[in-house]
Amino acid sequence: MRYRWPDGHQSAAVLSFDFDAESGFIFREPEKAKRSLAGLEERRFGPRVGVDRMLRLLDRLKLRASFYIPGWTVENHLAESKRIRDAGHEIGAHGNVHEAVDFLDAAQEEKIMRDQLAILRDLLGVRPVGYRSPSWDVNVWTPEILKSHEFLYDSSLMGNDIPYDVPTDHGPLTEIPVQWLLDDAPLFRHVYGATNAIADPARVFDLWSREFTGMHAENGCFVLTCHPFVSGRASRIALVEDLVRFMRKQRGVWFTTCDEVARWHASTGGRASSGAGAGKARAAKPAARRR
Length: 291
Ligand SMILES: [Zn+2]
Known about the structure:
This protein is an alpha/beta fold. 44% of the residues lie in helices and 12% in strands. Strands 1, 2, 3, 8 and 9 form a five-stranded parallel sheet that branches. The site of zinc ion has 6 residues, from loops.
């Protein structure tokens, strides 16, 4: 067995949702975001419609999920953020205004980390144990910042498909890995000039169910990432429901959340991994904190 899951489970499965709303648009294209009602409204579909559809879906399926919410989104869509919290889902940090950290130096990243944690604490009463970087963008010094703020885990890297350790000067940070294949945005979002087309939900069901079947056989940690403004659309909500029903036909799947996976991983002291393909992250030390 490549990874040992609790209670004899063969694999783990997490539904995760990045509740960005307008935040990523405001960070990446601040001038356009001041005038483009079209761009803003596309993303407001998330808080206006998508979040509640997802909450109803999770309620129907009796599943707890992991939601990652930027500070800006908590401030500007507080009622929806509270409904997510009050439904009992995990809430993790996801930047302040969805900052792609590639644009930031360590000091700027540290300030943004403090700001987002203050918003989550003051407006939601949440102290997150998990972090997902906006756009899955992570600098070599980011794990150290997360560890210094006592995060239990990060869920932004793609170096494995089982939990693994990222070394820092303050000890290992648990990584709950993600992958582009299991992200709704590149499959479904319309972007002018991009090579992707809007995918048929049946094709995405085929893609995701095949990946799940493979990862289940490999003792993997299947982390699906959806966005309320992308997968909150009617046919795509149905797709997620179909997928969960498909997954439930397999025996031995631990349906859980990233915080529970991280707690399990930490409780084993990293000894849940064994055999080929497990391995640990190699330390990627910054030569100097650039910029
Ligand atoms: Zn995001």
